[in-house]
Amino acid sequence: MSDELDSLDPYVQWIAGEARRSVAVDPAARRRLLDAVRSQPVPRRRGRVFAWLLEPRQLVLPPLAAAALAAGAVGIGILGGLAIHRDGRPSTAQPFSAGVAISQLPDSITPRAMKFVLIAPQAARVSLVGDFNGWNASATPMTAQGAGTWTVFVPLQPGMHTYSFVVDGSHFVADPAAPIAPDDGYGHRSSVVLVGGSSL
Amino acid sequence: MSDAADVQRVLSGDVDAFARLVDRYYERCARFAVRMLGNRDDAEDALQTTFLRAYRSLGKYQERDKFSAWLYRILVNQCRSIAARRNQRERVFVREEAVLLNAPDRRPNWSGEDEEFVQRVLAELDPLLREAFLLKYVEEMSYEEMSTLTGVGVSALKMRVKRACDRLRARWERIKDE
Question: Model's pTM, two decimal places?
Answer without folding.
Answer: 0.56
